């Protein structure tokens, strides 16, 4: 049986805590859409094909966790929009990493898919690459996790 939301919220592992906030199937897709400029409830619902109650719950959680904030609509109407906070924009590399992983592993060769392009020049965004303190590429073989010692 998996860890409860409460246990993950207190987890010593940063991955566990992050998954607790954005690890369900919809939250990162909502964040992706807000990065793409989709910022109203109805637009998000149409884009994702998500039921009102699930979208409402995910948006409520993302706002409560400080990933999104609400603000008055930019067109002056009575509606409000969702905007990424600093915490939310810091997820950009995560979304790009998932995108690149999906491009590498979930499409057949030659199959069409959306592309992430640089706004200045329409060039494909370069591959993400982790580097060590000396600037050399690093893989999972070159790193380890130091567990927090348990007090008795």
Kindly summarize this structure in a few lines.
By secondary structure, the protein is mainly alpha-helical. It has helices at 5-9, 14-22, 27-35, 41-48, 52-64, 86-89, 92-105; strands spanning 68-72, 80-84. It has one domain: Orthogonal Bundle (Arc Repressor Mutant, subunit A).
Mean pLDDT: 92
Q: Please trace the helix and strand order, writing H or E for each element.
A: HHHHHEEHH
**Nearest-angstrom radius of gyration?**
18 Å
Structural class: mainly alpha
> How much strand content do the residues show?
5-15%
Count of individual domains: 1
Indicate the CATH class: Mainly Alpha
Helix content percent band: 40-55%
Record the SSE blueprint.
Elements: H1 5-9, H2 14-22, H3 27-35, H4 41-48, H5 52-64, E1 68-72, E2 80-84, H6 86-89, H7 92-105
Antiparallel strand pairs: 1-2
């Amino acid at each position: 049986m998996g860890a409860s939301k409460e246990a993950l919220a207190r987890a010593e592992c940063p991955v566990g805590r992050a998954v607790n906030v954005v690890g369900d199937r919809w939250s990162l897709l909502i964040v992706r859409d807000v990065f793409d400029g989709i910022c109203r409830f109805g637009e998000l619902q149409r884009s994702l094909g998500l039921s009102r109650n699930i979208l409402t719950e995910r948006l409520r959680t993302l706002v409560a966790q400080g990933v999104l904030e609400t603000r008055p609509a930019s067109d002056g109407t009575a509606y409000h929009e969702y905007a990424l906070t600093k915490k939310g924009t810091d997820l950009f590399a995560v979304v790009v990493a998932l995108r690149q992983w999906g491009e590498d592993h979930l499409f057949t060769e030659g199959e069409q898919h959306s592309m992430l392009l640089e706004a200045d020049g329409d060039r494909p965004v370069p591959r993400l690459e982790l580097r060590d303190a000396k600037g050399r590429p690093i893989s999972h073989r070159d790193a380890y996790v130091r567990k927090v010692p348990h007090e008795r």
